[in-house]
Amino acid sequence: MTAEPTLWVIVGATGTGKSETSLALAQALARRGQRAEIINADAMQLYRGMDIGTAKLPHRERLGFPHHLLDVLDVTEEAAVAMYQPAARAAIADVHARGAEAILVGGSGLYVSSVIYDFQFPRAIPGAAPPWRQKPRSGGSASCSRACGASTPPRRGGSIPPTNGG
């Protein structure tokens, strides 16, 4: 009987060796006759062109192991955990369906947690902005405070002229 594929999770801060550790794990699994594929869990590595500041492994250093969810967004697009979670779970399911082990690697804690725990995200309403992002039509800081649900502006907010930002 063949064992169910495993989800391995490697997390840590930038520059701590997560990529190298994931490749070493993939190589160790390969030596045991088990295929492995790597799933990105770093929010910045989702972006095309964000290679240097994110320590994204170049293709030549990936040792032939498939990597998923790298370079999937333009820098003009917004990464969101609510978008990432189903994409990562689908990638993991695809890897497992091929009989391979999935290695989730990254330092974006909320992204990792959204995959391994049962996080539920509300649906966004296209074009709608939360009150704190809406620009008040008039009234300056007092109007901003009211838009966020405060009955009176904070002490400092009361000293900011209503024309500031309005």
Alpha-beta content class: alpha/beta
Strand tally is 4
Query: What quaternary form is this?
Result: single chain
Order of helices and strands: EHEEHEHH
- Tally the helices: what do you get? 4
The general outline is: elongated
Strand order of the largest sheet: 1-4-2-3
Cα(first) to Cα(last) distance is 68 Å
Reported for the largest beta sheet, the result is: 4 strands, parallel
How large is the radius of gyration? 22 Å
Percentage of β-strand residues: 5-15%
What average pLDDT do the residues reach? 85
Helix content estimate? 25-40%
Name the poorly predicted regions: none
Brief descriptors of the model:
4 helices; 11% strand; 4-stranded parallel β-sheet; elongated; 166 residues; alpha/beta
Q: What is the strand and helix layout of this fold?
A:
Blueprint (H helix, E strand, L loop, with lengths): L6 E5 L6 H14 L4 E5 L26 E2 L12 H17 L3 E6 L2 H8 L23 H8 L19
Helix pairs in contact: 2-3
Question: Summary?
Answer:
The protein is of the alpha/beta class and 166 residues long. 28% of the residues lie in helices and 11% in strands.
Q: How would you characterize the overall build of this protein?
A:
- It is a single chain.
- The protein has helices at 18-31, 81-97, 109-116, 140-147, and strands spanning 7-11, 36-40, 67-68, 101-106.
- The protein is 28% helix and 11% strand.
- It has 166 residues and is of the alpha/beta class.
- The mean pLDDT is 85.
- The N and C termini lie far apart (68 Å).
- It has a four-stranded parallel beta sheet with strand order 1-4-2-3, sandwiched between helices.
- Helix 2 (81-97) packs across helix 3.
- 25% of the residues are buried.
- The protein contains four helices and four strands.
